[in-house]
Structure formats: structure tokens, C-alpha cells
Design goal:
18% strand; 4 domains; 6-stranded parallel sheet; Trna Endonuclease, Chain: A, domain 1; 25 strands; Rossmann fold; single chain; globular
């Protein structure tokens, strides 16, 4: 069947009739792009009305006619043919010698015309719904072996994915394997392609795993909207500052590919979320909202003082919304990456900064927090009208129409063994069961259907509360080529050391070998410390060893600009804490001090999420390293993952167990943690005094003893026992 991908079009009636034509005829296969692509020419951007790409027919270019005026048929078809041929000839993958090996068939589709016989010719065909099928059936492609390359060129992926050229001498080195791996990711999949091109009037949500392509989709979408609507004011924002350079490069490359011109950076703006006075790179959406609406602006320290630690940005955004009942919109579209890292009040700020059409696209990772405490529904985030109806309600996806809610289920970064290991440790699937709760799970999805949405399938048991179940990645959601380049025992390894010094020397030697023997580049390697507070001190010994070995390194965002992650000259290996690591990726990832992620009082979910996030930075290989008994306990969990052939086998928790998990593993504020520790220490002392006879039960008083019995029994019904 034909997958229909709808972009922006000035010919809605004929576009819809063309889409209906292919929807009603299942015999055709391929992609029908409407309002795409845009071709960069010496005269500026050239807009294609519609295009069919298929193995059977090759490339069919449609010039659409809304009414009956077909006076420009020949000129329109010649223009589209010449410009497309020029574009395709620039790609060696589509050429053989001097010959373009892709047939291009221009045709005018004029559905309003009753009879096209008098104006149609073999060289310049004109069709309506009655004769389009017969004309298409006469098109053919003798050698469709270049179909995948053609799709890549049309999507412009072959251009934008180009990175620094790799100098590899050994065919079996890690560098050579990484090059083949990167070359294999040639095209956007159907959902990614639709998410880039399809635009809705209103809010669009894009969800997916780490590595599913959310960032590249948003960047391409911003560039596509800019190419289609150069007068629009578009903002792109994100949480991880080091993503700014990546966004700028992707948008720049894609815009040049589409328009033959660089973006107008005054119209498409890559801005921070918070921002500060000063303009330029200091600009941010929250600051802009305050500025244009005449509101009090809170910087970090002011927000911390007014709203409390951990609530700085949420409080600042919420206060601004409360103080501005009738905000002014200045943007035509806003795209938000890493939305799971923002409070809902910030998304509401973005919504209010938009003009009437409210084109807001936000992307987030369903598993980034790995808990039921994920982003609220759009109905909750964006509030209600005066009559009580939601301001935003995502409509169910319908065939042939732009999707408001896109789930990217394929993972193009992490291999199956790496991704399943990250999930197993993040959820605590194979953790030693807590006897009070009856499960070792740290956290779980409240909606079990989400497992299937993000690319798992049930291979044994039932995905039901209280039932044993085994979940595995499918080949569709975790392509084989991501793991076929190396044995599983090389893709992911866990190592436990006797001391941090031993760990530091091991990492330094391994990184040096990667550079000198494995043909990896410095930007193929990341060393991550999961605890952001201790990172500077934690990575010091490793960097010292590397310096002695003649290898340069830098602490991302500290030794470099906050907007830079990898060294621009590619002469230095990046070290980072977990927050700056988010949004970045590398072929080889080293995670040090992973024992800190085994457990933590009051924030078990948080430290497990750090480990999950760190592991999923890897495009190929990952080394999880740590010291002591807690690291060995993590290794024991990993051994269970391997024993189960990198699948998740566990008893799905009941509703009651999920409630307990949320209570036992809730994230506590610093004040709450101090209070619990103080009370726990006091209770421990009381128990010791009771056991030693220094305090007698009757010393506590009858009322206190009765209240204690009630609490330990778990309910007021036992108050009289």
C-alpha cells in the first residue's frame, strides 16, 4: 500500500483527491508525499506539489491543478522534471556512469476536468481520476535496486547525516564497524518521515524511546516549516544546552538542501527555555514571555528563594502564568525537545507564546522518568476553556490525515541487548525482591499497553496485573544491524573493581586503546559519571591517567562552552555528568561509579533513571563500571538479563503493589529526606533503649503505645486491640 505523508500545500482539493485515489487502490506501494519535497535551485526554493516514490513506478511527479486552467502544463512539467533530475544527478548512489538510474515521470493531475484527451500527450500527460490508474500502470522501473537510496535522497537524510570523514584502515576495527553502522541508518522510517512533514493546526505530541530519532525529527521539522513558510517566526527549545549546536547544524544542513540558502536565523530561532536579559544567546522563552507581557522576571537565585529548591523553573513559569490572564503570542510555531525534563507550566508558557493557530510540537521520552509520574495529558497541561472543555484534545489518528500523537517505536541508537539491559536495571526487573512489597521492581508503568507502544512484544505469559510475563524487543523495533556487528559480550560489559583508582586506570587504558588500536575518534567516546554533583572530582583521576598517556580530555560544559559537548577540533575525549550527557550519543560509552545507581535512600527511581539514561547514550558499545558490593549487586541483575536472553521476565505488579512501589520509591525533597533520617535514627535509638531496658514500654504512655499499634497494624480499625 501507499503511505501518504502530508506536508503543507496550497492545493488542498486536488491533494485530497490524489490521496483518496491511492487510499482506495491497495495495489500500489511506496510513499506519496504531498507538499514535499522542496528543491534548492539557483532561483531559490522550488516547491513540488506531490510525488510518488515506488519500486514499481520509480519517481512520479504530480503537478496539481485545482480548477480547469491547464495552460501551464508543459512549463510546469518541464520545470519539475529538470529540477528533480538535477537534484538526483548530484548523488552517486543513483548514477551509473553518466546515466541516472531512476526514471522520472511528470504528470498533471486535474481531477475537475471531465475529459483530458484533447490536452494530454505522451510527453506531457494530463490525467483525472478516470484515467490516472491506466497511465500509472504503464510506468515501470527496470532496476529498482536503488529504491532505498532514492528515498534517502528525497528525505535529504543522505546529506544531513554526513559527519566528519572516518579514516579507517582495518576492516574489522571498531571504527570500521561504527562507520558501517552509521551508513546503515540511511532513511527515516515511515513514522519519522510523517512526523517531519505532517503539520497540524494545533498541538502535536511526539513520543518515543531514547534513540528513536526525536531530536532529528524536530530539527528537520523546524527546517521544513521554515522552508515552506519563510515569513513564520519559529522557536526551537530544549533542556540540554549542548544540544544547541546539534540543532543548529541539522537545521542549517536541511534548509540548504531544501532551499539552496542558509536559514534566516532571525526567523527560526534556537533558544533556551529559561533565558536572561542581554539578548542573543542569552534569550529564552520564559524570559521572552515575561518581557513582552510586562511581568516580573525571576532568575535562578530569585526563583530558588521564592519557590524553593527543585521548584525554581516550575514556580517561575507558574507565577508568570498566574500574573498574565491575557498573554500575547508572537510565534507561529514552537518545537520543544526533551519535554519530560520541563514542568507542565513551561509547556503552557510555550502554548501562550503562540499566535492563534497554536502550532506547538513537543517531543519526549516515555521512559526517561520510568515511572507513572510522567508528563500529564494535554488536557491537564493546557487547561480548559471557560465552558469547561479542554483547550487541547488530541484526536485519534486517522488514515490519510496528519497525526497529532506520534509514537516512534523503533530505536536506531541502542541495540537490543543494550536497550533491554537499560530497561531491566531502570525498572529493577531482576532486583532482589523487597519482602514487604513482594517485588524487586523499583517502578513500573501504570498503563501496561505502553510496553507494546514502545516496541516490546509479549513472548510468554500475559501482560496483566499479577501475571507472569516475558517481554522482548521485536526485530522491527530493534533492527538486527544494530547488534550484528559485535558479539553480545562485547556490546555491553559490566566490571567491578576493588578501588576507584583501579577503575580509573582501567578506563584510561581502555580509552587509549580505543583511539590507538580501535580506530575510534575522540568524539566516538563519552565517559559518564551518573552523579552530577561529584563529577568534577570523580573524573579527575581518569583524566590524569589519560594526560600521562598523551590523551587530551575535557569536562563538557565546564572546560568548554555550556552549548558545546564534543571538542570542535576532535582532539579531546568528553567527560560529563549525567545531565549534560542527555541528548548526546557516542559509539563507546563508559559509565563510571555505577554502584551509586544501585540504591539510594528516598530517590531510588532517580538514581536508577540516571543509569538508564547513561546506558542509552551508546550507539554501539557500553561499559558499566563500579566499585564494591553494590556494583556486584548490579552485576547480578545484569547476569539475569543475559540468562533470559535479553528479555524482561517478571510478575506484573497488581494495583496494590503499584501503590506500594510509588510510596516506597517516591522521590523525596531534601527536607523530607532529612526529616525521615532524623526520625529513623531516633527510632533506632528508641529500639535499642527498649531492648536494653533503659526505657520501659510503660514509660511511653498508653496513648503513644496505642497510636504506635495502630500505625504498625496499618489502619484505624485496629485502634481498640
Amino acid at each position: 500500500m501507499v503511505t501518504i505523508i502530508r506536508g503543507t500545500t496550497t492545493k488542498p482539493v486536488s491533494s485530497q483527491q490524489l490521496a483518496d485515489f491511492f487510499t482506495s487502490r491497495q495495489k500500489y506501494n511506496g510513499y506519496l508525499f504531498i507538499g514535499y519535497p522542496i528543491i534548492g535551485t539557483s532561483e531559490g526554493p522550488y516547491h513540488i506539489d506531490a510525488m510518488l516514490v515506488s519500486k514499481e513506478s520509480g519517481l512520479v511527479v504530480f503537478n496539481l491543478v485545482e480548477g480547469r486552467d491547464v495552460s501551464q502544463v508543459q512549463e510546469a512539467q518541464d520545470d519539475s522534471y529538470n529540477k528533480l533530475e538535477s537534484k538526483l544527478r548530484a548523488h552517486k548512489s543513483l548514477m551509473q556512469g553518466r546515466d541516472l538510474k531512476v526514471p522520472i515521470y511528470p504528470v498533471t493531475f486535474a481531477p475537475v476536468l471531465d475529459d483530458t484527451a484533447g490536452i494530454s500527450s505522451e510527453l506531457h500527460p494530463v490525467c483525472n481520476e478516470a484515467n490516472l490508474e491506466a497511465w500509472l500502470d504503464r510506468r515501470d522501473w527496470q532496476d529498482p535496486s536503488r529504491y532505498e537510496a532514492l528515498v534517502s535522497v528525497i528525505q535529504a537524510i543522505s546529506t544531513i547525516r554526513k559527519g566528519r570523514k572516518r579514516d579507517v584502515q582495518k576492516s574489522d576495527s571498531r571504527g570500521a564497524k561504527l562507520k558501517r553502522l552509521e551508513d546503515s541508518i540511511a532513511n527515516l522510517d515511515t513514522l519519522q518521515g510523517r512526523a517531519v512533514i505532517e503539520t497540524v493546526e494545533g498541538v502535536q505530541r511526539i513520543r518515543g524511546l531514547a534513540g528513536s530519532g526525536k531530536t532529528i525529527v524536530l530539527a528537520l521539522k523546524a527546517a521544513y516549516l521554515h522552508a515552506q513558510h519563510p515569513d513564520w517566526k519559529i522557536a526551537v527549545t530544549f533542556n540540554t544546552r549542548s544540544l544547541k549546536g546539534q540543532f543548529r547544524q541539522l537545521i542549517n544542513n536541511f534548509t540548504i538542501e531544501q532551499t539552496n540558502e542558509e536559514p534566516d536565523w532571525d526567523k527560526v530561532q534556537i533558544v533556551h527555555a529559561w533565558g536572561a536579559p542581554g539578548g542573543g544567546d542569552r534569550n529564552g522563552l520564559y524570559y521572552t514571555f515575561c518581557q513582552i507581557n510586562g511581568l516580573e522576571y525571576h532568575d535562578y537565585f530569585s526563583a530558588k528563594h521564592n519557590f524553593g529548591q527543585g521548584k525554581e523553573f516550575e514556580g517561575a513559569c507558574q507565577r508568570a502564568l498566574e500574573q498574565c490572564p491575557n498573554p500575547t503570542g508572537i510565534y507561529d510555531a514552537i518545537l520543544v525537545d526533551e519535554a519530560q525534563d520541563f514542568p507542565p507550566s513551561f509547556l503552557r508558557i510555550c502554548y501562550e507564546l503562540l499566535k492563534r493557530e497554536k502550532r506547538l510540537v513537543y517531543a519526549y521520552d516515555e521512559l526517561q522518568n520510568l515511572s507513572t509520574d510522567s508528563l500529564p495529558s494535554p488536557e491537564e497541561i493546557f487547561g480548559k476553556h471557560a465552558d469547561g472543555t479542554p483547550r487541547v484534545r488530541l484526536q485519534p489518528n486517522e488514515p490519510g490525515k496528519p497525526q497529532q500523537d506520534v509514537i516512534l517505536e523503533k530505536c536506531y541508537r541502542n541495540s537490543r541487548p543494550v536497550l533491554v539491559t537499560a530497561h531491566a536495571l531502570g525498572f529493577g526487573v531482576y532486583r532482589t525482591p523487597d519482602p514487604d512489597v513482594g517485588t524487586g521492581l523499583v517502578q513500573i508503568f501504570d498503563n501496561n499497553q505502553l510496553w507494546l507502544d514502545v516496541g516490546y512484544k509479549v513472548t510468554d505469559g500475559d501482560l496483566l496485573d499479577g501475571h507472569e510475563v516475558t517481554l522482548s524487543r521485536s526485530k522491527d523495533s530493534s533492527p538486527d544491524f544494530l547488534e550484528g556487528h559485535s558479539p553480545n559480550d562485547d556490546l555491553i560489559q559490566f566490571h567491578c573493581f576493588k578501588s576507584k583508582e583501579e577503575q580509573a586506570k582501567w578506563v584510561a587504558d581502555a580509552v587509549r586503546a580505543n583511539l590507538l588500536e580501535d580506530e575510534l575518534r575522540p568524539d566516538d567516546i563519552i565517559v559518564i559519571n551518573p552523579d552530577p554533583v561529584s563529577t568534577r572530582d570523580a573524573v579527575g583521576p581518569i583524566r590524569k591517567h589519560l594526560f600521562e598517556l598523551g590523551v587530551n580530555s575535557h569536562l563538557a560544559g565546564i572546560d568548554t562552552s555550556p552549548d558545546v559537548f564534543f571538542d570542535g577540533n576532535n582532539q579531546s575525549v568528553a567527560f560529563t555528568g549525567i545531565f549534560r550527557a542527555k541528548g548526546n550519543e557516542a559509539g563507546m560509552v563508559y559509565i563510571i561509579n555505577a554502584q551509586d545507581c544501585y540504591s539510594s535512600f528516598g530517590n531510588m527511581a532517580r538514581v536508577r533513571n540516571r543509569l538508564f539514561t547513561a546506558i542509552t547514550r551508546s550507539k554501539a558499545w557500553v561499559r558499566v563500571l563500579g566499585v564494591g558490593d553494590r556494583m556486584q549487586a548490579l552485576i547480578n541483575e545484569f547476569e539475569q538479563v543475559k540468562k533470559n536472553d535479553f528479555s524482561l521476565s517478571f510478575r506484573y505488579p497488581t494495583v496494590e503493589q503499584r501503590k506500594s512501589l510509588n510510596i516506597v520509591n517516591r522521590d523525596l525533597t531534601d527536607d523530607e529526606r532529612r526529616r525521615v533520617r532524623k526520625n529513623r535514627d531516633g527510632f533506632d535509638q528508641l529500639l535499642e533503649d527498649l531492648e536494653a531496658g533503659r526505657v520501659l514500654p510503660e514509660d511511653l504512655g498508653a496513648e503513644r503505645l496505642n497510636r504506635l499499634r495502630v500505625l504498625l497494624a496499618g489502619g484505624q480499625n485496629n485502634a481498640n486491640t
